[in-house]
Amino acid sequence: MKKKQINRKEMCIKTDIPYSTYSNMHTRKSESISMRAIVKISNFFNVTVDYLMRDDLPIEPILYKSDSISTSSYQELTKDKKILLNSYDKLNTEGQEKAIERVEELTQIPKYTIDNISEELSITREDVKDINLYEIPASAGTGMLITDDVPYEIKQVDLTIAPQARKADFALYVRGDSMEPNYYDGDIVFVKEQPYIDNGQIGIFIYDNETYIKKYSIQEDGVYLISLNKKYPPIKIEENTLFKICGIVL
Fold first, then answer.
1. What are the residues whose beta carbons fall under 8 Å from the beta carbon of 146, sequence distance 6 or more?
2. 171: helix, strand or coil
3. Radius of gyration of the chain (CA)
């Protein structure tokens, strides 16, 4: 992105990838990776899928070859994976899309997946934590109501990737752009539930029956909820209006 002089949102627009999908992949907040998105990104940057999927490759990208991938890391792959990668890179864009569809279909069939094994292993791992991820997002724009009956899913979080989740009591989605550049639409924030927050900290608040993720600011003329994106005006907390501090964003 630096070489192309574009930001994350511009890349998502050019590749037709939902920003939330990219954000979850980039921050490793998702337990699964969208191969369809990987293909679009690799095609856009003209690098191999192998380059995007591996953590141990050199910084300089490995460009597509006319025949097969030729890297030191490639030599470390198993024979079956080499066959798959070689065959995949011989396909055109439409063929790659079809190949991904077939693989995704197989992942939905328990007979061909290792989900059961993974779940058994994760139970004994000390670096994994189950956390409630609420489906109705904390808004980074207009605000949204959170009540006791809000639906949620239990999300497994890898604490080696998101260590801040260790102290979290729940998690929420961010929607909108008012908290950019720190928090983007589709990001997941981890929240420690507490009834207080220090001046200048980011928290989750309920104000006038709507829920916000904002910066808490105590000023001479009162308390404000501040957006990090300057195009959004501060929200002043008026007296005799419901206001509650739900917790601090970790």
1. 134, 136, 138, 206, 211, 246
2. strand
3. 22
Domain boundaries, the chain: 8-113, 128-249
Looking at the DSSP bridge assignments, the partners of residue 171 are 133, 190
Residues 185, 190, 191: CA angle, nearest 5 degrees: 115
CATH topology of domain 128-249: Umud Fragment, subunit A (2.10.109)
Closest CA to 227 of 192, 177, 188: 177
pLDDT digits (tens, 9 = 90+) for 150-171: 667 788 887 777 788 888 988 8
| 172-225 residue pLDDT tens | 888 888 898 888 888 889 999 888 889 999 999 988 878 899 999 999 889 999
The two structure tokens encoding residue 15: 């590749």
For residue 226, name the pLDDT band (cuts at 50, 70, 90): very high
Q: Do you know the residue count of the chain? A: 250
Percent of the chain at pLDDT > 90 equals: 16
Phi, psi (deg, nearest 5) at residue 185: -55, 130
H runs (alpha helix) in 28-114: 35-45, 49-53, 72-75, 79-89, 93-107
